[in-house]
Amino acid sequence: MIEKKAWAVNGYLALILMLALLIGGIALVVQENFVVGIPLIILSLFLATGIIVVQPNKSYTLVFFGSYLGTLREPGLWLSVPLAIRKGVSLRVRNFNSKTLKVNDIEGNPVEIAAVVVFRVVDTAKATLDVEKYEGFVEIQSETALRHVATRYAYDNFEGKGFSLRGNPEEVSTELMNELQQRLKLAGVEVTEARLTHLAYATEIAGAMLQRQQASAILSARQIIVEGAVGMVQMAIERIEKDGVVKLDEERKAAMINNLLVSIVSERSSQPVINTGTMY
């Protein structure tokens, strides 16, 4: 069903006309002219059933004996088709906060995830006539899309390759919004934003995954420390040889490299040892 504009005329002019018909009909009835007076009264009351007040950011879908007549969107007082069934739809921007869902990521790990969806109705005919209740439709489809997107990614990418739910929230949100738009266009709903509001490992594996994250962080930090230490040792050796402070053979150089690396990489402060002898 595609939305179209319903027939309507200015409601204020219609009210003046109805009052004139009503007053004229009553006057004729008082004069005992029932043949003309009663039909005028009935006509005025019949036209009154077509009066509609449209509030800002609200629309009405009109259905007359099973036929879709159109939609009134413009705020104001209007006279439309009498006896038509009116279905009001809010056009305001609204939020939907999904429940915290437990799903398995692409690696099979149970993950708790939730999202907020910002949407509004853009086609009232589809929202009222093509789906049973568009609010419930938005809720179910949002949770379905969230589950589907969550199963495409890992919670965290420890190897640093590809996207992950925790490491790429912008990309995941964009994909979630695009999938939601495809699902909700049937209900005449436009999705303006979709964001993850909760993301965590399920309680049954949270402890183990925390240890894995800590181990990964320690390894990454150690790698940075070792790379920096090697660079510092290399600079020290080159500076000593360049300035001619002392002539180092391969054995002394290896000993110095060992001592410097231990001193830099060690978590505890090193204790100096004064060597008064010789290596040979």
Automatic annotation (TrEMBL):
Keyword Transmembrane helix listed: yes
Entries under InterPro entries matching the protein: Band_7, Band_7/SPFH_dom_sf
TM spans (from-to): 12-30, 36-54
Segments forming domain Band: 49-213
Biological process, per Gene Ontology: proteolysis
GO function terms (MF aspect): peptidase activity
Keyword field: Hydrolase, Membrane, Protease, Transmembrane, Transmembrane helix
CDD domains: SPFH_like_u2
Domain of life: Bacteria
Full protein name: Regulator of protease activity HflC, stomatin/prohibitin superfamily
